[in-house]
Task: inverse folding
């Protein structure tokens, strides 16, 4: 697991996936979330605009990140 620092919160889930390089485009990020391929705090999340805050743990594929406020 790696920590990711954000300068403000909340941040939308699909934007975080795009900015952290999990996917290459925002459209792709929305698609993988809608397909149920992303976990937030251990639960499948299908809301692409889900608000992510400090302490949330995001899992996609074989990568896991923890969001921290800078």
Result:
């Amino acid at each position: 697991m790696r920590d990711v620092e954000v300068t403000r919160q909340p941040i939308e889930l699909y934007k975080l996936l795009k900015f952290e390089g999990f996917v290459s485009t925002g459209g792709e990020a929305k698609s993988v979330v809608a397909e149920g391929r992303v976990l937030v705090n251990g639960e499948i999340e299908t809301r692409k605009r889900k608000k992510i805050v400090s302490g949330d743990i995001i899992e996609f594929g074989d990568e896991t990140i923890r969001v921290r406020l800078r």
